Amino acid sequence: MANTTYSITVRAYQQLLGPASSAISVQTSSGGYCSSESIDSDHGTFVWPETDSSMRAVVACPYGPNGVTVSRVCTSNGGWESPNVTRCLTAISSGFKNLSKVDLTTENNIAVLMSLNELVMNSTDNDQSIDNIIIVSNILNQTAILISGHAGLSTSNLTMITENAIQILNSIGEWPSITRAEGNQIIQSFERIVDAVLNHNNDTNVDVVESNIAFAIRKFAKFNYNGFTFTTTASNGSLMIDTDGNSIDTEIGSMTIPKSILSVTTDAKIKLAFSLYNKSAFFPIRDPPPNTIVGSSVISARIAGVSDGTQLPDPVVINLALKTNNSSNPCCVST
């Protein structure tokens, strides 16, 4: 029988110096000249050859794209103008492109995700593009397929995959202009990994907390399941998962999955995954009414063995703290 998962989601450089450019052509004439010059930037090292005045030097982009060049004018008084290198890839974007060509295997999956994590964390505005978002999404999708197709993956491997995926997601949450357009694609890719880990043949519980995301997986034998509450709190600006219900810190959000899901799950065990997003970058309001904002964290749960659309015997209880005191008419919205 195919795995099914019930989903609930609610919301209320260090500089990398690389290859040097090579001169493609230089137009020459008699008269003064500009001295050769080497300039380091996040787009690579540009080596400008000695060039006659009033002429233009042309060099290739160090990191590509292939065939793309940059020109620079030597002025009539022998001074260089500033080149526009924005058409060239940065070291980080070149890294994204190179990583997208790697075939993911059980041997290299952790190394690939760690490299992707580093690229995302070290990206600047020049790298935060739709193309790179798509690369991230594709690698996460490939990772989910890899997990689903290899039952023998170790517990430590699965945990490291989950940790890196959440760290990547947490960093991409700082790309607001991009995530507003592609946030749904990234979340779907992440949830494919969650489903794959959730349905994997192991009993490992997982807790991962980043600056803006708290995540947990809990697995129970059916005879031990008596309902479960996932609670996230905050203290001094840091998120925490409250595992015993006795925290005195400020509660950000909680979700209780009732015991009665025992009667609707098709799995031999109860497997739950929870996510709380303290920022709403991935969940913009579509066509909002005037003066409407996302006023709380976003919380979600996935239940293995329960198909989407299944009517649960008892309600799922959700609590979300409002982030602003001067709001009116708060309401929960599913996404």
Automatic annotation (TrEMBL):
Keywords: Receptor. Transmembrane segments: none annotated. GO terms for molecular function: G protein-coupled receptor activity. It comes from the Eukaryota. Signal peptide: none annotated. One of its GO terms (cellular component) is plasma membrane. The keyword Nucleotidyltransferase does not apply. InterPro entries: Adhesion_GPCR_A (IPR051963), GAIN_dom_sf (IPR046338), GPCR_2_extracell_dom_sf (IPR036445), GPCR_2_extracellular_dom (IPR001879). The keyword Zinc does not apply. Residues 11-92 form the G-protein coupled receptors family 2 profile domain. GO terms for biological process: cell surface receptor signaling pathway. PANTHER family: ADHESION G PROTEIN-COUPLED RECEPTOR A3 (PTHR45930:SF4), G-PROTEIN COUPLED RECEPTOR 124-LIKE PROTEIN (PTHR45930). Belongs to the G-protein coupled receptor 2 family. Adhesion G-protein coupled receptor (ADGR) subfamily. This is G-protein coupled receptors family 2 profile 1 domain-containing protein. It comes from Amphimedon queenslandica (Sponge). The lineage of its organism: Eukaryota, Metazoa, Porifera, Demospongiae, Heteroscleromorpha.
